[in-house]
Write a structure and sequence with these properties.
This protein has about 260 residues and is an alpha+beta fold. It contains nine helices and six strands; from the N terminus they run βββαβαββααααααα.
Length: about 260
């Protein structure tokens, strides 16, 4: 079944069988942060990706298999295989695509000003919070500080691993959260880019939730006193139906 055959309407939750958005298969590893970003975004839009998803075992490098690389030469998940057989990867590009084919509810913007504001905040947080956190985690898995299931999982997969600087990378990310706190003191809002939930919040949620790991640390519990807005913000996000459903789906997939 193509996703063009099944798109839920935001207002009623019923299925719109006429809308075509051109996606054949959603290749994903639901437990991982970037796949969950796209999953949450799609659920907020009322788009059903579950019916066309294919789980990829990234722990055994299935995403790097010849079959997968033929569709997505970059080798990461998630990615879409489109109706024409072409691949579309990279989370923000995938979300932009979903936004364009189903504009409502808007998660990037409704006009040039709101779109630019969302993209500004997305880049601010991605460059100085999300990226440093991801790299800190990768470096930590190669360090003597890491033990357990994550130990060595990126060995031979990442082009560069610098275990000696994982703490500094994590501190870089924390500095950006402190900066965000200062911005929200001056201009309070419910969400990062303003009063409306956006793609920025999808990305913030998956980063804050996935990387709360014993040994690596938890930005919120470790720094709650200096991050009051972010702590409260995360509690608001956890109550969203899209995030509850995504979390439940991950539990179902992992238990299968």
């Amino acid at each position: 079944m193509c996703i063009r055959d099944r798109v839920s309407t935001q207002s009623t939750g019923e299925t719109d069988w006429t809308m075509s958005i051109g996606i054949k298969t959603f290749y994903t590893a639901s437990f991982a942060p970037n796949p969950q970003l796209v999953d949450i975004f799609a659920r907020e839009k009322g788009i059903d990706l579950e019916s066309i998803e294919k789980q990829v075992n990234i722990l055994i490098n299935e995403n790097r298999s010849p079959e997968m690389l033929k569709i997505n030469p970059a080798g990461q998940v998630p990615f879409f295989e489109m109706d024409d057989g072409k691949g579309l990867s990279d989370t923000i590009a995938m979300c932009e695509y979903l936004e364009d084919v189903k504009p409502e509810p808007a998660l990037i913007g409704t006009d040039p000003a709101t779109k630019a504001n969302t993209r500004m905040w997305q880049r601010r947080m991605e460059e100085h919070f999300v990226y440093p956190t991801f790299e800190a985690f990768r470096f930590w898995t190669e360090s003597d500080d890491c033990a357990g299931d994550f130990k060595g999982i990126f060995a031979g997969k990442s082009p560069m691993l610098l275990p000696q600087v994982w703490r500094e990378m994590r501190e870089w990310a924390l500095v950006k959260l402190r900066w965000l706190e200062e911005q929200k003191k001056d201009s309070p809002s419910e969400f990062v880019a303003g009063d409306d939930f956006s793609v920025v919040d999808c990305q913030m949620y998956i980063t804050l939730s996935f990387f709360a790991i014993p040994g690596f640390g938890d930005f919120l519990t470790d720094n709650a006193a200096e991050l009051p807005w972010t702590v409260a913000y995360m509690e608001r996000l956890k109550e969203r139906e899209s995030i509850k459903a995504s979390t439940a789906h991950i539990a179902d997939v992992m238990g299968a």
